[in-house]
Amino acid sequence: ILRLVLEQAPSMSEILCLSAASKTVLNSMLKEPSLIPDLILAQNIQQCTINDCCYGPLVDCIKHAVGQEHEVLLRDKLKERNLSFLDENQLRAMGYDKTPDIILEVPVAVEGHIIHWIESKASFGDDHSHHTYLNEQFWSYWNRFGPGLVIYWYGFIGELDCQRDRGILLKDCFPTDIVTLSQLDP
To answer: How many helices (H) and strands (E) does the chain have?
Structure first.
């Protein structure tokens, strides 16, 4: 909506008509309202951005913090179980560009499925976001590291857990039924 307001503002028509890259100019102004020549419009755009309860910078900051908190929770749970793993930061330092949150150094079994990696999602797994994650993240992880586990800490639509046989297991909490290789040794 802010983009439309900015595009339609009478004070902006001349600027946008003269600019060949008006979309780039608009994006810059939305990110940095001080670039908007009309001071009142600039202040209104900035106030709307700050007050945006769905997509504003405060919401982004909160989502990021909650995501980090759940990644710490995941690492703590893995440490409690004495499971050896590499986290995303360690993997990036090793040169990996696209990584899950956790790679298990020794795979485990969860509900009879082998798990090599774990991805933490501090959100609800709805149809749209899950399919986006599948295409942009999870299948890449599967191709690089093998089968894995996604934890949607705030639940997910049950029908989405349909890729188990293909190597992507969904859970809404840290699994309690992890089987390690040491448990299999006689």
So the answer is: 9, 6
Q: What is the DSSP-derived secondary structure letter of residue 147?
A: S
Q: What pLDDT score was predicted for residue 7?
A: 72
- Please identify every stretch of the chain with a pLDDT value under 70, giving residue numbers as ranges: 1, 10-21, 182-186
Encoded amino acid at 160, one letter: L
The number of beta carbons lying within 10 Å of the beta carbon of residue 7 is: 13
Asked if 42 contacts 15 with a C-beta cutoff of 8 angstroms, the reply is no
DSSP-assigned states of every residue in 7-28 = HH-GGGHHHHHH-TTHHHHHHH
Give pLDDT, residue 155.
97
Predicted TM-score of the model (pTM): 0.76
Contacts of residue 3, defined as CB under 8 A and 6 or more positions apart, other chains included, come to: 26, 30
Spell out where 27-154 has E strands: 85-87, 102-110, 113-121, 148-152
CATH fold for the domain made of 58-183: Trna Endonuclease; Chain: A, domain 1 (3.40.1350)
Residues with Cβ within 8 Å of residue 88, at least 6 apart in sequence: 71, 99, 100, 101, 102
Whole-number pLDDT of residue 15: 57
